[in-house]
Amino acid sequence: MSTNAPHRAIYRRWRAQTFAQIVGQDATVTSLRNAVRSGRLSHGLLFVGPRGTGKTSTARIVAKAVNCLAPADGEPCDTCEPCVEIREGRALDVVEMDAASNNKVEDMRDFLPRVWTAPSSLRRKVFIVDEVQRIRDGWDVLLKTLEEPPDHVVFIFCTTDAGGVRPAVLSRLQRFDFTRLSEPQIAGKLRTILAADGREADDDAIALLARLADGGMRDAESMLDQLLSGGDERLTAARVRDQLGLADDEAVTAFLASLADGDPLPGLAVLDALDERGRDLRAFVDQCVDALRAAIVAALGPPAGRDVTPLGDRSAPALASAARRLVAADPSRLGRGGLRFELELALLAAAERPSGATATIPPTSMHPLAAAPPPPARAADSPAASTRAASAGPAITASTPAPPRPATPPAIPASTPAATAPATPAVEPRDARPDASAPVDLEAVLAAWPEIVAIVGENPPAKPIITACAPIAADDGVVTVAFPEAQAFLRERAEKRRDVIERGFDAALGRKVVVRFVTSNVVPAMPAEEREAERLLAEARRIFADDIAGIAEVD
Q1: Cβ pair 238, 230 in contact under 8 A
Q2: Where do the H-state alpha helices sit in 4-150?
Q3: Is residue 554 situated within a structural domain?
Q4: Dihedral sign of CA atoms 411, 415, 417, 423 in order
Q5: d(CA 16, CA 19)
Q6: Cα–Cα distance measured from residue 517 to residue 491, given in angstroms and rounded to the nearest whole number
Q7: CA 342/CA 325 separation, integer angstroms
């Protein structure tokens, strides 16, 4: 090859050209080869699977197979003129479209004449449409043709999200699912590429690339291409991490140990070091998630077969608690209060309670007996007595575990005021209503949601924000509320009103929480009277259409 020849990416040079070269999709390949051999290939195919798993490559091979002049057992020869034209991208009768940029009604109308035109040189025309889930209204133009196309046409649609394709389209297609490739399968092809290029690599470097690819061969080949272009020296795991901006295993282990043990200083030092080296914190979070999952699985396994992990013998509950705090961080959050600050808050939250504990003890004074619910029949355990005892009892902070409850509460003389206090006070203090030491779960948030909406709604700018969202998760003092995708702009407004919203949550729940704002496909709960008003308005619009009079007209 001439030194002046342009460089071709590895994933293009090593794209599969026959069914036999497809890696990791044996069931799909067998079905397609048999359909071609028997002449029973459908006019419409749908390839579904994650990116980089061979959907487009398989579609091109199908185009070869139906036009090959010398097929063998359903396999294209890859040497005849039609196969060569398709391989080199010169075949006018094989059309590839990207539905991400060609998805409108006008695009489909321009597309139809090409469908009904006879092939110019091949036996059959093949239309390969990628990212087909992006087509919306354009299907209305194509549906009839897709149901009864001309005999010389084959449609092959590729998508990563079959849920985005309308059912009327799915019913007209044969679906083939492409699965993620395993790490050994990816590693095997990477070794073949390295051997063909005369390059050397350590086994742990290849294993790291296979793991980072997350089941996608194209991602693995693209990363390998980037690494090989950086020099001719042997490929090592350290070089892979350095060139791809990854943290080393020691940094990941140190951060997770700090998170699980409730000791924030080592974890903060790790974040400082990553920042100085310019590492991508989003990739670091992915590394931490993988390491935590492996450690949790090892901790749950039987002792005889347990794999040794760098996190040692930490219990599964402690690791799971660390994982919950880690996933509460939002990788898409940028600027001040971004991902690094959220990771620092996760470390500090871990330090607020003893290692392995399942509930956060707030740093407020409380009676030792308040950690467990008191028996309702005892006057000595009434809220009034507990309140007075809390003012005189010793203070317990997050660093001091609550002492165990005695088997028999101390007796209180009948002459003391507590004995004559009413069993149920007329107005229960807010601090006594919710148990401030109990973890806040989603059920508790949903129960308090009307009160939260009412409190936050007292602030006029915050009222439309809180009424548009709905709680979807609560864990370890972090409450996640979601806005509908159609109102995603309210998420930014909610960030600006965070103080007001979190104060409303604190007042209703009786403890401090952190509110996380996300967008999701949710419908916020609506009070009964508002639902009735919406129903009446919709019914009025149905009956009177555009004849509804406004307030100004009535006046």
Answers
A1: no
A2: 10-13, 26-38, 55-67, 81-87, 105-116, 139-147
A3: no
A4: positive
A5: 8
A6: 6
A7: 10
Q: How distant, in Å, are the alpha carbons of 98, 361, 385, 401 from that of 374?
A: 66, 18, 11, 19
Q: Give the pLDDT confidence score for residue 28 in this predicted structure.
A: 93
261-274, pLDDT tens digit by residue? 888 898 899 988 88
**Greatest pairwise CA separation for the chain in angstroms:** 107
pTM, two decimal places:
0.60
- The token duo for 422 is 């009413």
pLDDT for 359 equals 38
**Burial class (CB within 10 angstroms; exposed 0-12, middle 13-18, buried 19+) of 223:** buried
Q: Containing domain of residue 485, as a range?
A: 442-529
What gap in Å lies between CA 354 and CA 433, rounded to an integer? 25
**Is beta strand 470-475 parallel, antiparallel or unpaired with respect to 94-98?**
unpaired
DSSP string for 93-106: TEEEEETTTS-SHH
| Distance, CA of 346 to CA of 353 (rounded, Å) | 12
Look-up: residue for tokens 């109102």? 487
Task: Say yes or no: 41 and 130 in one domain.
Answer: yes
Q: What is the DSSP annotation of 301-316?
A: S-GGGPPP-TTTT--H
CATH classification of the domain holding 99? 3.40.50.300
The pLDDT of residue 1 is 45
Give the amino acid at 258. S
CA–CA separation, 516 vs 491, rounded Å?
Answer: 10
Q: Which segments of the chain have a pLDDT < 70?
A: 1-5, 302-309, 312, 333-337, 352-439, 521-555
Q: What is the pLDDT of residue 154?
A: 94
Q: Is residue 421 part of a domain?
A: no
Amino acid identity of residue 183, one-letter, is: E
Segment holding 481, helix H or strand E: strand 478-484
Q: Which two three-digit tokens encode residue 147?
A: 């149901």
Q: What was the pLDDT predicted at 368?
A: 33
List Cβ neighbours of 30 (8 Å cut-off, separation of 6 or more): none
- The residue with tokens 């990553």 is 274
Cβ count within 10 A of residue 360: 21
